[in-house]
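Re-running the complex after MR caught last week's input typo. The corrected sequence lines follow. Everything else is unchanged.
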Amino acid sequence: MPLIRQPKNFLSGLLFMGFGLASLIISRSYIIGTAAKMGAGYFPRALGIILIGLGALLCLLSLRSTQEPKIVWRWRPLAIVLLSVCSFIWLTNYLGLILTSIILVLISSTASEEFRWKEALISGVILGLAATALFVYGLAIPLPMWPTFFSSGA
Amino acid sequence: MDIINNLVMGFGVAATPMNVFYAFVGALVGTLIGVLPGIGPVPTIAMLLPLTYGLPTVTALIMLAGIYYGASYGGSTTAILVNLPGEMSSVITVLDGHKMARQGRAGAALCVAAIGSFFAGCVATMVIAAFAPVLSEVALKFDAAEYFSLMVLGLISAIVLAHGSVLKALLMTLLGLLFGIVGTDVTTGVARFSFNIPELVDGIGFVAMTMGLFAFAEITTNLERTSGQRELLAEPIKRIWLTWQEFKQSALPILRGTFLGSLLGILPGGGATLSSFASYTVEKKIADDPSRFGNGAIEGVAGPEAANNAGAQTSFIPMLTLGIPSNAVMALMAGALIMHDIQPGPEIMTQTPELFWGLIASMWIGNAMLIVLNLPLIGLWIRLLNIPYRLLFPMIILCCTIGAFSSNNNMFDVWVAIVFGFLGYIFAKLECEPAPLLLGYILGPMLEENLRRALILSRGEYTVFVTRPISLVMLLLAVGLLILVILPAVSKKREVVFQEEE
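Corrected-run output:
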């Protein structure tokens, strides 16, 4: 039997301890103060300590008790989904909302195993036009509709 | 009678053409996302929050509330017609509702779900009208120490009543508290955890965080599953009506479900999902022939459907009166109020009674609308269910991305959504529920503020929390709940209650 029988709990414990530790390190420079006169560092430091303590408890508990299945990570769909969102950040100000929306839909569609080019392209065009109509005209969000590299100062 | 006067005032607010229109939009959008599996009310409400900036507060809330109960209603349509729940709260409806549909009784199942929900909705509205003023009057007498203990109790019971590991939920809440205090500390003016990023000085974007945690992470985990077949009902539904026999069978379960749901909805951590599970368990326990359950028992649809709608509505009570959201949707509602510069809590009822009573009255209008809206539109919802997920999810991603941007008209918020999407995926893989994190996030600043104030008043004496009787009772309740749930016997029972959703 492996030592860590519940990998999900063990990793969660580590994750929470990591956040707790980060909180302690970052809040080092904030004044703690006293209970009666709390500084900015009092509450975050308390949270950090509790997170580390309970996180460690979670790790310990994962060593005993019943065996659990391994975690199956599948990074591809996640990477694609997040990349498609990144494309929005990088492209919108240059290509405008309509083109960017189409690109976002195309990229994210590939995350599905049932991806089909034609279908994704058609739905991208429809969604791009609809989203632009709704957000740029309907809600007046400050994003360009069309590519800006023709006009000066893109 | 005060209640009557208040309700009349509420209807005056809710029945204006604009508010009726937005209640309609909310109920419609809610039903739509409820019907579609793979997108829940949390990301939808987060997505639409920026759209409500321009609206008056009461109108915004009426629409958002409509989305919530509309979703819990639409979820049952999917649960009955397809063998998968449209929403968490209708997980239990699948068991008997879909069986009924397979037996050619889809019409009866849909009808009893509609009647049950409507009845429960009406009763729950009355419950809110009766209880909320009492609670908020009590809450107005609270001092910082009581508030702190109340929040602790709220967070603990939300953990205990939620499903999954208690320890992990507790840790997620604490992490939420930590995320909640990012940004400028109101008392000292220090920008905490801001890494010199100007956008972070205002705190982590609420909308963007929710999008990442709930929408992006959920989509990614959905994509991992191999496309499961949907057993869509092929035959047309003949008539949506009940026989006298079926009506008699479902009347009492609806009553019991309404009662249970109204009660459980008020509890922190309660709400629609827990209510429907509890009601199903009760109906099965007291049935003459429990083996009928799971094979198309109409009681197994009537009770839970009434319960989930009642629970969905009464869960507004703790948020509106105490300022303590009891589930993720209520955390969003509290966020919406804060965005409109209204602090959730007992002051809502005294300072903006038209907001409170208008919202309550709108629930009635919304429930009536759901019936009118849904029974004739069943055909449309069935057609919607045929849209494959591969076309749906890019649309959700696009809307959420633009939604995250539009919350502050800022690309930084889109980055926040990406980071939380990544974190959310890891949480999902590690089976850490994101809802407690959201509750912690909303309550973080308030919890710190009240802790601070209580300790200033007591000159640093922590005993203030146990010497003040109300505060002591609440802390004891919280500790008691925690001990209770850790006891082996209880934790086993708790697993049983939630096991049917696996």
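None of the earlier attempt is carried over here. The beta strands of chain B are 183-184, 191-192. Chain B has a mean pLDDT of 85.
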